[in-house]
Each structure stands twice: as structure tokens, then as C-alpha cells.
Design brief:
The chain has about 450 residues and is an alpha/beta fold. It is built from 13 helices and 15 strands.
């Protein structure tokens, strides 16, 4: 035991000398030592929230092109092959002056939309930092705008009581040291940046790492350890561990991560591993002029299918160059918020199932209640597999009456045509016991 302790102390001392922004290995294993019950308690707020706002923003909004990916390549170890020359893209910050940015307005829009947490691209793959960084010169303080966006958003989120997260890209396509000969120097700077955004802005509830499908030489154990030492309660996604396209497709959850992240698609039913779909409200992650914005119906269906699959939805907005979220986006989001204001009990705090999502039938549950979401209800009777519990009460949350027939082999539900909703007809079934204990079953449609 003494020999192990001595070796561990030497390892910690060496780490401190070699990489000033890392921590010793003992702290990095905090997540691995956590019990399932402790993990479940830590992520409980996130699972209950179900719906969050992703915000992709930076100087690239001046061009209206995709963030980072529209930058031309300057590092052969990075995958971007955009059309904007690097020297042009990298100097956009000199013109970036979003004088209409109002963090309180962003938070108010998120809350009016029914979103329970916000996640901002503190640093995307292009390396630009939206905070006053001492670890990176390429940051918002060097722009005509000057103000610390992360500080203002953190203050607004904390004041409003909404959960706050940072998106942080471990890779920096602008930095020539990234994945190159002096990658260790780059990682030290990267960890210094993480130390700043996790130390200077109060409680941070979530950290959203990204991947570009290339190698991941990010000193992962020490990086995770640093994050969890600074914010012990934080929730972390799974992308820091991804070092290839195969890793991205597999979407495994490493020993220090909490959930996985299907992108631009609704995840499959999974009530064992926490997951969250990230998806754009438009067609690209950052602001695009005259973009095609998803409709209220598309947004509601996406949210319902994610939650019915036992996942979350992180829906992205891209603010304009002036700092405001585009009115067309706000209009749709407000409509989603009004829908949730009426029917949110079938979303918030629920779990997916017991019926796995089908093409037009989705279910969620909470306590002794099962919510049947009939999307595009165009038929007469909904036929579902049998339930092992008795239905003791039923009603239509969206208005009307439901006729219920329960047998040992099936459950049949019928709502009059005049009570069927264009977007989602929600039938509420109260059972004689907990719904979450019912094994998930596939619907045949």
C-alpha cells in the first residue's frame, strides 16, 4: 500500500510539472468510482428536463455559412475543407460587433419555448472563444464588441434559474499545434481554457464536447478529471472519447462520460443508456440567411419521438450577426412553448415507453400514467399490444373522450374524429401500478 501511494504521489507530481493545467490521476477516476445510484441522482434534473436549447454562434455569422466547417483547411490532421480562405475566416472577428446581443433575451426565449437548459458554443472547432480567455488570444475581447458573452449568459441563466452548459471543441483547426508535433503544448492550452470556463462563471451544469471523426489525443483521463474536480455535479457527453468515424457511429459511453449524442436524427429507443438528440432548427448549425426553418409540427414530433425513445432533444438556434435570435426562429419556438404549456405533463419528467415509438404512435410514462401520443391521427381505432397492468382511468389530454377496450392480448383506443388533433392527440391512461416497470414492447403499425 505504501509503495502504491508513493508511486501515485510521484505520478501526480510529474503530471503537475509536465502539464500545468492537468490534475493527478486519482482525481480523474472520480466518475469511475461513482455508483449507478449516484450517477442517476446527478443526472436526474437533465432526464426530467427533456428539452434544451443549443446555441451555435460566432464571427462566422457575418458570412451566414456553417460554423468552422466553412473554413478552408490549414491543418492536414483536421477534416474541414470549406470555401472561405483561412486568412479571411480567421479575421472575421475584427468585424464582429453584435451590439444587439442580450443574454437575458436569449434565456427568456429558451424559457418561453419550454426549454429547461441552454448550451452555448463557448469554443467551436474554429478555435474562437466567446469569453475573455487568458489561455487563448483568439477571443471575444479582441473584437469591436469586447464584452464577455459567456459571462453575460451565465449571469442571465443563473438569475433565471435555467440550467447552463458549454459546448467545447477539444480540437482547434486554427492552431498548428493541434494533433501535430507539439500537441502536448496544445493540450495544456486546451485544459487551461477548460479551467477558465469551468472556474469563472459559477455553476456549470453540462459540458458538451465534440468530435470531428479524427484522432483524439486530448489526455482524456486528466481532462475529465480536471472537469469533474472543478464542477463535481456536471454532466458530460460522450464525444471526448471519440477518435474516429467508427467511434462516432458506435456512440459508446466511456467510463467518464454520462450520455451519448445522436446528431441530426432521432435516437432509437434506449431506456438503459442516457441519450440526447442534437438537431438544428434550420438546415445548418449557425445562422443562415433565408434558411428553411422547421415548423411547429416538425418540432413537436421530433421532441415527442425523442422523449418516447427515452431521450432528450437539444434543439439548435443560430443567432444573427447582430446578436439577436432570428424572429422566424423565435416564432416557432414560442409556439412549441405554448404547446408544452398545455401538454408538458406528457413530456417533462417522463420516461419513454412502455410502447416503443412507431411511425405515428409514441408513448411516454410517469408514475402510474401512460401517455399515448397519436401523431397524424388519421384512422379510427388505435391497436396496441397488451399491457400487464389494468387501465383504471382514461381521458384525452388534448380534449375529448376515448373509448378503451383492454383484453389479455391487446389494448384498443378510439377517439372521435372531431377530437383528433392535427399535431398530436394525447391519450392519458392511468394504470393500477407503475408504468416504468413494464418491459418495453414494439408496436406494429
Amino acid at each position: 500500500m505504501r509503495l502504491k501511494t508513493r508511486n501515485l504521489l510521484i505520478a501526480c507530481l510529474f503530471t503537475t510539472v509536465a502539464l500545468p493545467y492537468t490534475i493527478c490521476w486519482a482525481e480523474s477516476v472520480q466518475k469511475a468510482a461513482e455508483t449507478k445510484e449516484q450517477r442517476d441522482a446527478r443526472i436526474a434534473w437533465w432526464r426530467q428536463a427533456r428539452f434544451g436549447m443549443f446555441i451555435h454562434w460566432g464571427p462566422v455569422s457575418l458570412k451566414g455559412t456553417e460554423i468552422s466547417w466553412s473554413r478552408a483547411n490549414s491543418n492536414p490532421e483536421c477534416p474541414n475543407q470549406g470555401s472561405i480562405p483561412a486568412e479571411v475566416y480567421d479575421n472575421l472577428y475584427k468585424e464582429f460587433n453584435p451590439v444587439e446581443f442580450d443574454a437575458k433575451e436569449w434565456v427568456a426565449i429558451a424559457q418561453a419555448s419550454g426549454m429547461k437548459y441552454v448550451v452555448l458554443t463557448a469554443k467551436h472547432c474554429d478555435g474562437f472563444c466567446l469569453w475573455h480567455s487568458k489561455a487563448a488570444d483568439y477571443n471575444i475581447s479582441k473584437t469591436p464588441f469586447v464584452r464577455d458573452v459567456c459571462a453575460e449568459l451565465a449571469q442571465a441563466a443563473h438569475a433565471a434559474g435555467i440550467k447552463l452548459g458549454w459546448y467545447y471543441s477539444p480540437m482547434d483547426w486554427r492552431d498548428p499545434d493541434c494533433r501535430a508535433e507539439h500537441n502536448a503544448r496544445y493540450v495544456a492550452s486546451m485544459q487551461g481554457q477548460l479551467r477558465e470556463i469551468l472556474s469563472n462563471y459559477g455553476r456549470i451544469d453540462l459540458l458538451w464536447f465534440d468530435t470531428d471523426g479524427r484522432s483524439a489525443p486530448w489526455d482524456r483521463e486528466n481532462t475529465y478529471g480536471l472537469v469533474r474536480r472543478l464542477q463535481p455535479q456536471i454532466i458530460i457527453n460522450n464525444r471526448l472519447d471519440m477518435g474516429s468515424e467508427a467511434d462516432y457511429e458506435a456512440q459508446k459511453i466511456g467510463p467518464y462520460a454520462d450520455y451519448y449524442t445522436p446528431e441530426q436524427r432521432i435516437g432509437e429507443f434506449d431506456n438503459r443508456r442516457p441519450w440526447e438528440t442534437c438537431m438544428t432548427l434550420g438546415t445548418q448549425w449557425s445562422w443562415k440567411p433565408d434558411d428553411n426553418i422547421k415548423s411547429l409540427k416538425e418540432c413537436v414530433h421530433t421532441l415527442v419521438k425523442c422523449v418516447g425513445g427515452d431521450g432528450n432533444l437539444l434543439l439548435n438556434v443560430g443567432p444573427m450577426p447582430n446578436g439577436r435570435i432570428e424572429p422566424r426562429q423565435v416564432e416557432v419556438l414560442n409556439s412549441v412553448g405554448k404547446w408544452l404549456g398545455r401538454f408538458g405533463e406528457s413530456i417533462y419528467g417522463t420516461r419513454g415507453g412502455p410502447f416503443k415509438p412507431g411511425r405515428s404512435i409514441v408513448s411516454t410514462n410517469k408514475g402510474n400514467v401512460v401517455y399515448i401520443h397519436a401523431l397524424d391521427y388519421g384512422g379510427g381505432t388505435i391497436r396496441l399490444p397488451a399491457l400487464p397492468r389494468k387501465i383504471i382511468e382514461s381521458n384525452v389530454l388534448t380534449g375529448g373522450v376515448v373509448q378503451v377496450k383492454q383484453t389479455e392480448t391487446a389494448v384498443s383506443l378510439a377517439v372521435a374524429k372531431e377530437d383528433q388533433q392535427e399535431i398530436d392527440t394525447i391519450i392519458k391512461l392511468t394504470l393500477d401500478g407503475p408504468a416504468v416497470q413494464i418491459p418495453p414492447v414494439t408496436i406494429e403499425e
